[in-house]
Amino acid sequence: MEHVTFLVVVVIITALAFDFTNGFHDTANAMATSIATGALRPRIAVAISAVLNLAGAFLSVEVAKTISGGIVDDRLVTPPMVFAGLIGAILWNLLTWLLGLPSSSSHALFGGLIGAVWVSAGWRGCAGGWRAGWRWPGC
């Protein structure tokens, strides 16, 4: 039980790190147009984005509804799976931010979760047979 509790705490901390990278990643995309067109001064655009991103994190559950609506098999979603998905999303956010590439943190989270599920199914497939004929090289 202590192992699961520790893992859940690690997942929560990682989720907060993802939310931080989401904030500086998507906020820049959200305010770029209003600043570039001169509609808002940079300081006001940053303040509005900060308030709305914080409010959105507490008020919107659309991403969670979408994920739980059948995209990912609920039986495969475990704390290690969520942790792996969050790590993948954080790495993608940081990479695209450092390279100056526009991308979506929500898409990064979906990709991280789907990739983690795919890898998990693959590793189990090596040990216990494959669904739908997929095989890892060397299995």
Which descriptors would you attach to this protein?
139 residues, mainly alpha, 5 helices, 0% strand
Describe the structure.
78% of the residues lie in helices and 0% in strands. It is mainly alpha-helical. The longest helix has 35 residues, at 2-36. It starts with a helix and ends in an 11-residue tail after the last helix.
Provide the fold topology:
Elements: H1 2-36, H2 42-59, H3 62-71, H4 79-99, H5 105-128
Helix pairs in contact: 1-2, 1-4, 4-5
In short:
The chain has 139 residues and is mainly alpha-helical. The protein has helices spanning 2-36, 42-59, 62-71, 79-99, 105-128.
Distance between the termini: 33 Å
Mean pLDDT: 75
Q: Structural class of the helix and strand makeup? A: mainly alpha
Strand percentage lies at under 5%
Give the ordered list of helices and strands: HHHHH
Shape: elongated
How can the largest sheet be summarized? none
Rg for CA atoms: 18 Å
The quaternary structure here is single chain
Q: Can you give the helix content as a percent range?
A: over 70%
Unreliable sequence segments: 127-139
Please tally the helical runs, counting DSSP H or I stretches of 4 or more residues: 5
Count of DSSP strands: 0
